[in-house]
Amino acid sequence: MKKIIYKWFVPALLFALVLVSCDKYLDVKPKGVQVLTTVTDYDQWLNSFGIEASLPGEINRLADNVDNSSVSNPPITTDERVYTWQPQFSEELRVSPVIWSNQYKAIYYFNVVLEGIDEATGGTEQQKKSLKAEALLGRAFDYLYLVNLYGKVYDANTADEDLAVPFVTSSDLNTQTPDRSTVQEIYDHIITDIEAALSDLPQDNSENRFRGSVAGAYSVLARAYLYMGDYTKAALNAQLAMDNGPNAVLDYTTMSRARDIPNLRVRPDAIYARLSSSFSNYEYPTLSFLQSFDPTDLRLGFFYLTSTIGDGKEQTLYRPQGVPSGEAYPNWGTSVAEMRLILAEVAARSNDLGTACDELNLVRKCRFPTNSYEKYESDVQEEVLQKVLGERTFEFPYIGLRWFDMRRLDAEGRMPAVNRYDALDNVIATLSPGSNKYTLQIPIQVLYFNPDWPQNPTDE
């Protein structure tokens, strides 16, 4: 039986409502179709750019290290609404819901493979199992984003009651939309699917880091358990990721500029690679974030460009492609540095400060010139933990992870209030400790066709 798939992916309007069951939108037709019949077809399908660059860059606008001094008050554009944590990022019903649609579009790709690969012709049974395993891993990776955007921070006491997102397993747009699953149910799906995939995943993805691997599976599990607060399992899986794949941090001290950083597809420290859908967009760092860097940190020169603008003022941009432009685009997926910093954080939280500093320094020594690098040491637990958490902001400034870190730190009472300012330095929005804004509202574009779904609470 042939599986018919869209050649040019379904128009944005359809994907805006990819989860809704409504004939009005299911009647939208793609401009072309591609028939997937062979194992090779499905293998190439997993190389789709819609998978590689699936992650929404808007997540960066939520974080405390971005600035937008030209923001309107009240906010007008989608970016401005995200930046000021508005309950809805768009009030228009007939537009694609920001963030939500990115993730479910990627999940569609993986569900296509999971539903059709068994009937594909050619190839071996093991190749089919391998592609199915990659699809399970990829879907789990995207659900990890969704549950940490639209569900509350994982709390073992309430996770089986806290609502998250629907768990969609069908690529048929006529299939009835599932109800919202709980946070616990989504994490259970993530873990179960990855564990089911492990035995059939490729051992090596060095020729294409965007593809799944055993190491990639363990690395996603490490991130998931970190967000769940299960630090023992987070550390165990972080180590397994490096035991089964890359284990060396990319060393900037061997490079003269960011242009020397290899293409992400073959980057040696990438474990499971992903790009943002807006991977070439600049970010505007806050002054406080810039001032928190050590001036000798190589990441400043590699990624941050300061130029003079009108009236002699200076403006600093974060350039994801590097300075000068190259292929240094940051990995929104998992990396050796992330695994090292997970090990460091877990060790710091358990007061194993020697291990925490050792893991932290394995990252830091690759980010400072040899003649200025100083090994970090401390016997004060809170100092070490803060140092590790700070290093995460320097190493992963604009790949979405800062927002997720803010969420889990807020749940621990570690996040101060975050303010947004206009050009005149007036406070126009505040993200308070414990705010409901740390959990995004379900987009109204989705609720319109699923009116029985409960909405996430707001601060109003």
Order of helices and strands: EHHEHHHHHEEHHHEHHEEEHHHHEEH
Share of helix among residues? 25-40%
Shape field: globular
Largest sheet: 2 strands, antiparallel
Q: Would you mind describing this structure in some detail?
A:
The protein is mainly alpha-helical. It has helices at 12-16, 23-26, 39-45, 49-52, 78-83, 100-116, 125-150, 183-197, 214-228, 231-243, 287-291, 298-303, 336-349, 353-364, 381-395, 401-411, 444-447; strands at residues 3-6, 33-36, 163-166, 180-182, 270-272, 304-308, 314-318, 334-335, 418-421, 427-431. The strands form 5 sheets. A two-stranded antiparallel sheet has the order 1-2. Strand 9 (418-421) and strand 10 (427-431) form a beta hairpin. Helix 14 runs parallel beside helix 15. The termini are far apart. Residues 1-33 have low confidence and may be disordered.
Q: TL;DR of this structure?
A:
The chain has 17 helices and ten strands. With 460 residues, the chain is mainly alpha-helical.
